[in-house]
Design goal:
By secondary structure, the protein is mostly helical. Helix content is 74%, strand content 0%.
């Protein structure tokens, strides 16, 4: 794909092993840049998920005709928000997997024999695999009983694919990424042109039907979410698996080459900006079309345009944070507690929009959802800062660590 070829040209390898000579992995500590980027991505995801925490199937119900503020926010979202934070989070997940692998296998130390080195490598992969299976289980629970817009299930499955490529160099990783992206886009294109959704807009009969479901009994919501997770299990292997794995391989490459420390050059950033703007423009034109097929196809350009924009966000955070634990501390706090606070986001959003204040689904425009996301984001920043004054690890992070150790 074009995006991957351009990234390949932009990311020049540092040495034969694809590991930057300036790279300093912290075996016993944390990497401030990664925590800050992860926190930024997690808060950003909320601005897209907030619609689906209300209506888990369709998300936001537009007015007919659409109002000016909704159109403005939708276009801004196409350029800056939609898909950007999921892409950033996916790349971080791939980077994190490789970092876990490096720590577990002690790549900085020399083994006494080749067989011992292979044993350490296999042990590292097994431990990561166990964590991924736990993540898949948590994703199913989260998706069925809380919010079926879950990403943990797909991340766990994508991670199982990515684990096979830890030892590849940067060029090989990007070649795999391009191949996976091509598969994903082809499948998504075929699915897009065959979908025929019912008209869903504010006040329509179908909107009223959906509103009754997602503000009705919890039991009915669980049944629908179980159905949706079942559908995801069918669709992930043929599309989302390859898209997510492609992004994770890019993240692994960035990690190996030290871009989490130094960011990108001006030339690289200019390239990313041009590609991102071009794809976002096409996405906006197609998404505003009257054709249902073109609106669905616009999602392909959204996915492709999200990658370079996410890389620009990566660069900005790296340059501001400078791997300093005293900079962007509030974002780092969220990043350290990302798993726990991802579930917390779902809990707060679902309780508010479906159970405590269900009338908001009738009243809220896009601007209201954005304001709600800002309030919930600020609340999370506050809660994370307070929590880390008393604890060093999030509850779900602690649970995952203990379960992984127990299964060894």
């Amino acid at each position: 794909m074009l995006i991957n070829r351009n990234i390949d040209q932009a990311l020049a390898p540092s040495n034969d092993n694809g590991i930057s000579r300036h790279q300093t992995l912290l075996t016993h500590g944390r990497i401030a840049n990664l925590d800050a980027i992860r926190g930024f991505a997690l808060l950003g995801i909320l601005f897209l998920n907030i619609y689906f925490m209300a209506n888990n199937f369709y998300g936001y119900a537009p007015h007919l005709p659409e109002i000016a503020s909704d159109l403005t926010i939708e276009i801004v979202s196409n350029f800056l928000l939609e898909g950007r934070f999921i892409s950033l989070f996916s790349m971080l997940f791939g980077a994190g997997l490789w970092l876990q692998y490096q720590k577990t296998t002690s790549l900085d130390s020399k083994s006494d024999s080749e067989s011992e080195s292979e044993s350490e490598s296999e042990h590292g992969k097994n431990r990561i695999t166990r964590r991924l299976y736990l993540l898949i289980g948590l994703g199913v629970i989260h998706g069925v009983f809380l919010f079926s817009g879950d990403i943990l299930l797909s991340y766990g499955l994508c991670g199982l694919v990515v684990c096979r490529y830890f030892t590849l160099g940067p060029k090989q990783l990007l070649a795999k990424s391009a191949k996976f992206m091509l598969i994903a886009m082809a499948v998504i294109a075929l699915i897009s042109i065959t979908l025929e959704d019912e008209q869903f807009y504010r006040g329509s009969d179908y909107f009223i039907e959906q509103l009754a479901l997602w503000t009705g009994t919890y039991a009915d919501q669980v049944v629908m979410q179980a159905y949706m997770i079942g559908y995801m299990l069918l669709i992930i292997p043929i599309s989302i698996l390859w898209y997510g794995a492609s992004l994770m391989l890019i993240g692994m490459t960035l990690m190996k080459q030290g871009y989490f420390e130094r960011g990108f050059s001006h030339k690289q950033l200019g390239l990313f900006a041009c590609i991102g703007i071009a794809f976002a423009s096409i996405d906006s034109l197609l998404s505003l079309s009257d054709s249902a097929v073109l609106k669905e196809v616009s999602g392909i350009f959204m996915m492709l345009g999200a990658i370079p924009t996410a890389l620009i966000y990566w660069h900005i955070i790296v340059k501001i944070c400078q791997n300093n634990p005293l900079k962007l501390t509030l974002l780092q706090n969220i990043g350290r507690l990302s798993l726990s606070f991802y579930i917390l986001q779902s809990l707060l959003g679902v309780l508010l929009l479906r159970h405590w204040m269900p009338q908001w689904q009738m009243e809220f425009d896009r601007i209201d959802y954005m304001l709600l996301a800002i309030v919930l984001g600020l609340l999370q920043l506050f809660l994370a800062a307070v929590y880390l004054r008393f604890f060093s690890q999030g509850p779900l992070e602690y649970l995952m660590t203990k379960l992984t150790q127990r299964s060894q």
